[in-house]
Amino acid sequence: MVAALGGGRLIRLAYARPLVRPDLLAPATLGHLDDDAARAVASPPWPRIAVAAGRRPAAVLRALKRHAGDRLFAVQLMRPGRLAGFDLVAVPAHDRARADPRVVTTLGAPHPFDRATLDRARRDLPAAAAAVGPPYVTVLVGGPTRGVRFALGEVDRLAGAVDALARALGAGVLATTSRRSPPGTAARLAAGLGVPHHVHDVGTAAANPLRALLGVAARVVVTADSVSMLSEAAATGVPVHVHALAGRGGKFARLQSALAEAGIIQPWVVDAAPPPAPLDESARLARIIRRRLAS
């Protein structure tokens, strides 16, 4: 989002104490920050635009808006609870935010990826991944959530589906697990793939090459447990396939339906049609912000 607005200063918030219900706090609340973070937020010069994401940073953005007043255009990403203190709130459509002039809906969750960023990341592809050889099917593996069951046996089913698709395409497989993936997921997935492959295990010390894996992808496969992973995959501009999991509905199902309607999610077939364009909601939000500032 910041990059789409032309750059800016990133303040990393350090919290001194937890917030149980940040959406109910008064607009001037900075007491949950450590001293350095509080000074960085509350000291002029004030930015023209400030962007926060999530409910804990939302309380900080409200405080910054109270200090800076109309000199600051306050942008909140993701639903903050209440709208007070913000000039614009960007909420994923699958979250079904209530209608308000300040609310703009987005297709998917906000993230820092766009096609240009992913293209630059291609040069960072690890040697072991590059050795697999293109074209690549990139696989993003999640894990259990409150509404999704994801046992290791599910990895075998995923491996079989991905292997069949890669064989039909004459492709290799690049995959990465997530912090929610059960222990042993990476090894189990690798064991189930017969095509050339490289599987990154986030449980190791090596940096996650996610951006590079998305940057080189000819297809992307995402397990049906993460709105964030699915939103990131949509930024590639290549066909995205969803590996269904038991128990996933609600907002994920709504997002999946919207992305399929947009031509981004495709059936698991060799001749899947490419999406009309990479999904870039950050650029669209940046245009909306500039228009509102100019009005």
Commentary on this structure:
With 295 residues, the protein is of the alpha/beta class. The protein has helices at 35-42, 55-68, 115-121, 127-130, 152-169, 185-191, 210-215, 227-233, 250-261, 281-294, and strands spanning 49-53, 73-77, 88-92, 103-106, 136-140, 172-176, 197-200, 217-223, 240-243. Strands 7-6-5-8-9 form a five-stranded parallel β-sheet, with helices on both faces. Strands 1-2-3-4 form a four-stranded parallel β-sheet, sandwiched between helices. Helix 5 (152-169) packs across helix 6. The radius of gyration is 21 Å and the shape is elongated.
Classification by helices and strands: alpha/beta
CATH class of the largest domain: Alpha Beta
End-to-end Cα distance, whole Å, is: 21 Å
CATH topology of the largest domain: Rossmann fold
The count of domains is 2
- Count of discrete alpha- or pi-helical segments spanning 4 or more residues: 10
Return the string of H and E elements: HEHEEEHHEHEHEHEHEHH
**Form type:** elongated
What is the helix content? Answer: 25-40%
Please give the number of β-strands: 9
Lateral arrangement of strands in the main beta sheet: 7-6-5-8-9
Summed over residues and divided by their number, the pLDDT gives a mean of: 87
Identify low-pLDDT runs.
Answer: none
Major sheet attributes: 5 strands, parallel
| CATH architecture type of the largest domain | 3-Layer(aba) Sandwich
Taking all Cα atoms into account, the compactness measure Rg is 21 Å
Percent strand: 5-15%
